[in-house]
Amino acid sequence: MTLSVAPCPVRDEWDAAVNSQLGHPMQLWGWGETKAAHNWSVDRVLVKDGETLVGSAQILLRSLPVPFNSLAYLARGPQAEPGRENEVLDAVGRYVKASHKSVALSIEPDWDAETVAVATLPATGWTPSASTILIPRTLILDLTRSEDELQGAMSKKTRQYIRKSSREALEYRAVTAAELPQCMAVYKETADRAEFGIHEDSYYSDILENLGHASPIYGAFQGEKLVAFLWLAASDATAFELYGGMTEEGSTLRANYSLKWLAIQEMKARGITRYDFNGLLNDGVSKFKFGFADHENMLAGTWDLGLSPLYPVFARFLPVARRSMKKARGLLKR
Q1: How many CA atoms lie within 13 A of 56 on its CB side?
Q2: pLDDT in tens, 183-198
Q3: Which end of the chain is more exposed for a tag (fewer CB within 10 A), N or C?
Q4: Which pLDDT belongs to residue 320?
Q5: What is the pTM of this model?
Q6: A Pfam family in this protein (predicted)?
Q7: How confident is the model at residue 1 (pLDDT cuts 50, 70, 90)?
Q8: Residue 90 and residue 148 in one domain
Q9: 231 and 215 in contact (C-beta within 8 Å)?
Q10: Which regions of the chain does DSSP assign to beta strands (E)?
Q11: Looking at 51-65, 260-274, 304-318, which range is the least confident one?
Q12: 118 pLDDT more than 90
């Protein structure tokens, strides 16, 4: 039976569908609203077998020059019932081709690299791409483990620094919306120091407004002054680190250790089962992340499905196009 694909225009219905299938926070309505306010358009579709929901996909669309029309992109999507990933992808691909005339559909699913669907994607027309937006090599904590088990998987130094920083004269707590400007000041200081680019302030305030409870921020305060923050996005199943930063004082006090442990504890208390550190590189930040676990994870990576006869031409220039897109939309920062 051919699966049906239909747009979902109701926020509560959409988020309920994403969460029922253990979807990623980048598939929540609020994330799409933020992207739609910053140079993207968004289409959200439910995939059904008769009356049964088997998948869902929040499709982000980036306009391209004629004759390419657009590039469709699924950030950590789609959602699919186990064993039906390829069916859902086929249905979403056919929908995008018919409804949006996109030159290609690009996906970076929140699936383990060993997923059967990934092993068979090349046979169904998908091609792997090295031009990634979201890094597939990452670290995902299993929050069904006890706090003692989670700490037992940490390095000895990480446990020591958590204890040490917790004894400093710092307050660790949730950041309020009114304190967002402090986060932005620390983030800009961090970006200048580490030499990476960031969005305009309105982008971050839009994330907070559009995601609400699904966008918690935690901070380390020295009196009234914020010295470190960690910003997450969270669905019912997965917490995902978005942004973070520290002042020089925060770095000296090792505030990031207790701050990350607080975020992990808070997400566990919500009943969330996966905590994703958002990518691993061969850098100092990744070395810090490695201290919190004794493993790493590899997700499926980036896959493209050509939807137009012009796709081979487009694919030839895809790395350049992707770099342009990244510059326009900004990468998810550490």
Answers
A1: 24
A2: 999 999 999 998 999 9
A3: N
A4: 67
A5: 0.94
A6: FemAB
A7: low
A8: no
A9: yes
A10: 4-7, 41-49, 52-63, 70-75, 79-80, 104-108, 126-129, 137-138, 140-142, 171-174, 217-222, 225-234, 238-246, 274-276, 297-298, 302-306
A11: 304-318
A12: no
* Judgement on whether residues 231 and 83 belong to the same structural domain of the protein: no
* Per-residue tokens: 220: 């380390």
pLDDT at 328 over 70: no
Question: How far from the centroid of its chain's Cα atoms is residue 17's Cα?
Answer: 18
Do 124 and 153 fall into the same domain? no
Are the beta carbons of 27 and 18 closer than 8 angstroms? yes
Residues whose CB falls within 8 Å of the CB of residue 32, separated by 6 or more in sequence, listed in order: 42, 44, 58, 60
**pLDDT recorded at residue 189:** 96
Domain hosting residue 112, numbered range: 4-135+299-329
- DSSP letter at 143 equals T
The answer to whether residue 334 is domain-embedded is no
CA 174 to the chain's CA centroid: 20
60 token code pair: 């982000």
Cα 25 to Cα 1, 58, 126, 141, 157: the distances in Å are 30, 11, 24, 16, 31
Please give the structure tokens belonging to residue 254.
């090792």
Q: Say how far apart CA 92 and CA 242 lie, in whole Å.
A: 27
What is d(CA 4, CA 119) in angstroms, rounded to the nearest whole number? Answer: 25
Give which of 45, 48, 50, 42 is closest to 8, Cα–Cα: 45
- Mark whether 303 and 320 lie in a shared domain: yes
The rounded distance, in Å, linking the Cα atoms of 334 and 175 is 18
Distances (CA, A) of 169 to 160, 233, 249: 17, 28, 12
